[in-house]
Specification:
Elements (H helix, E strand, L loop, with lengths): L3 H7 L2 H22 L3 H16 L3 E5 L5 H9 L4 E6 L2 H9 L5 E3 L12 E7 L8 H11 E12 L5 H23 L2 H13 L4 H8 L3 E9 L4 E8 L1
Parallel strand pairs: 1-2, 1-4, 2-3, 4-5
Antiparallel strand pairs: 5-7, 6-7
Helix pairs in contact: 2-5, 2-7, 3-4, 7-8
Length: about 230
């Protein structure tokens, strides 16, 4: 296990930007293969939840190559959807895939007025931000008074045997597969370490509610290796 201080340093914005920029072209392929295709189901479920809120305006933070934003657009064709990320390389891939509205933006200092969006989504991105509390406060700031938040993140299965198997995959197999697919093993070493250190479950629910939200809830998917967190603006 890495030292917490080392992980904090690895979440330095420039380090994270360079890391994701370096794997942008192979990022989707790696995601689909390393998740055994489960990422399609995870995004489908996230889109179903957002659809139930019927938002008119959505910003997808840390949109990366745009997969969640595109899924939301397919589910909510009448909504305005903006994909925001601080990696130009990732956004270039998202645009090539058909995501029409994108903006380069830092989740800790969003270039939007207060109460600009009905919904904020972020998939597998909050974990990588240097200041989790500050990012959540920014999300609350740009939401309308009746707005909703959806955070989708990796997590650890609660069942001990499954957790052990998943950890072996996370720290032993996935870095090797990721290195083969992207030639960037460090990105996948980082992934496993960051999942271990991220405050998921009840801890994240408390963090969300202490930073401008209410009625935070968690929905584990695929035996708990991914969790969707939802909340309403307080």
């Amino acid at each position: 296990m890495v030292d917490p201080n080392q992980l904090s340093q690895s979440r330095d914005p420039e380090t994270v930007r360079d890391m994701f920029g370096g794997i942008a072209r192979r990022y989707d392929l790696a995601n689909h293969l390393l998740s055994c295709g489960c990422d399609f189901f995870w995004r489908k479920r996230a889109a179903e939840i957002v659809n139930s809120w019927q938002p008119n305006t959505i910003v997808d933070l840390a949109t990366g190559t745009g997969d969640l934003a595109i899924a939301l657009g397919n589910s909510l064709p009448g909504s305005e959807i903006l994909g925001a990320d601080f990696s130009e390389e990732m956004l270039a891939v998202a645009k090539a895939k058909g995501l029409r509205r994108t903006i380069i933006a830092d989740a800790l200092a969003l270039p939007f007025a207060d109460r600009s969006f009905d919904c904020v989504t972020i998939a597998f991105g909050l974990r990588n931000i240097h200041g989790w509390n500050a990012a959540l406060r920014e999300m609350a700031r740009v939401l309308t008074s009746n707005g909703h938040l959806l955070v989708m993140e990796f997590s650890l299965p609660s069942q001990p045997v499954l957790r052990s198997v998943y950890r072996f995959y996370l720290h032993r197999l996935m870095p090797a597969f990721g290195a083969f697919l992207t030639r960037k093993k460090t990105a996948y070493d980082y992934l496993g370490d960051s999942i271990e250190r991220f405050p998921g479950g009840d801890a994240l629910l408390r963090m969300i509610e202490s930073n401008g939200f209410r009625n935070a809830a968690a929905e584990p998917l695929t035996a708990g290796i991914v969790t969707i967190y939802t909340a309403a603006k307080r």
